[in-house]
Write a structure and sequence with these properties.
Structural class of chain B: mainly alpha
Order of helices and strands of chain B: HHH
Shape of chain B: elongated
CATH topology of the domain at 1-79 in chain A: Four Helix Bundle (Hemerythrin (Met), subunit A)
CATH topology of chain B: Helix Hairpins
Oligomer: heterodimer
Helix content of chain B: over 70%
CATH architecture of chain B: Orthogonal Bundle
Distance between the termini of chain B: 52 Å
Number of helices of chain A: 7
Radius of gyration of chain A: 21 Å
Number of domains of chain B: 1
Largest sheet of chain B: none
Largest interface: A-B, 82 and 72 residues
Chain lengths: 164, 100
């Protein structure tokens, strides 16, 4: 049953990823990416990471994709990739190179570097993540707040119109 | 229970699709979304391995990756909008000002 669910959702995730790359219209791409992020959230649930599944839906699908769609609407694209492409031969080179990369990743994953014995007990859920976040990872956690503040100030500086 | 090799294989394919998307597309917004796809694939690998080795550290790491991705998207989209205001076009092939 779990295997069936995995394969159905994996197929959906792969199809939506291909849709993002292949569709010409960026709005369609953004919607495909939302589907893909939802599939990854389901995988998090299946792996027992409930907190990440919720954060994935709220942060990625909720905040980041809204920002993307907002930017796409503001910039009125759709006509950028219709003209002739002078670099087309180079772009087609990406397909064999991508295949090579996939081969490399699979070889790394199949090597015995990662074949340590599996744990007997599963990691805890939300409680253990929260405990780690506020004990061992407290300093990085505080640093991310500074990072978000820096991003906020940087975006304001970039988006401000020059006063004439 | 689905073995975690399935998850790592799936995220390897998703990562490759993201890389190919960055290489073949000309619209900077789609390139950005392909980068998000790659980040998600890496996150999925992290969570799968965290599950296998019985540690919640991977989930904390993925949480940090999400935070950094949010900051990155905000700054990146602001840069794209600023470039669009300057050039009135939106293609990465035009942005050769800093090319050596």
């Amino acid at each position: 049953m779990q295997h069936l669910a995995f394969f159905v959702i994996a197929l959906l995730a792969l199809a939506s990823a291909l849709g993002l790359v292949l569709r010409r219209n960026p709005i369609h791409g953004a919607l495909f990416l939302v589907v893909n992020l939802g599939c990854v959230a389901v995988f998090y649930l299946m792996l027992g990471a409930e907190f990440l599944a919720a954060a994935q839906v709220i942060i990625y699908a909720g905040a980041i994709m809204v920002l993307f769609i907002f930017a796409i609407m503001v910039l009125i694209p759709g006509k950028e990739e219709t003209g002739p492409d002078p670099l087309r031969p180079f772009r087609l080179l990406a397909l064999p190179l991508g295949g090579l990369l996939l081969l490399e990743i699979v070889l790394i994953l199949r090597s015995n570097v990662l074949s340590a014995p599996a744990a007997t007990r599963p990691p805890g859920g939300v409680a253990s993540v929260g405990r780690l976040l506020f004990t061992d990872y407290l300093f990085p956690f505080e640093i991310t707040s500074v990072l978000l503040l820096a991003a906020l100030v940087g975006v304001l500086a970039l988006a401000k119109r020059k006063s004439a | 229970m689905v073995p975690e090799t399935y998850y790592t294989a799936l995220s390897a394919i998703l990562f490759t699709i993201g890389v190919v998307g960055v290489l073949v597309r000309r619209n900077p917004l789609v390139i950005f979304m392909s980068i998000e796809l790659m980040l998600n694939a890496a996150n999925l690998t992290l969570v799968a391995f965290g599950q296998r080795f019985g540690t919640a550290d991977a989930q904390v790491l993925v949480f940090f990756v999400m935070t950094v991705a949010a900051a990155e998207v905000a700054v990146g989209l602001a840069i794209i909008v600023a470039i669009f205001r300057l050039r009135r076009r939106l293609s990465v092939d035009d942005l050769s000002l800093m090319r050596w």
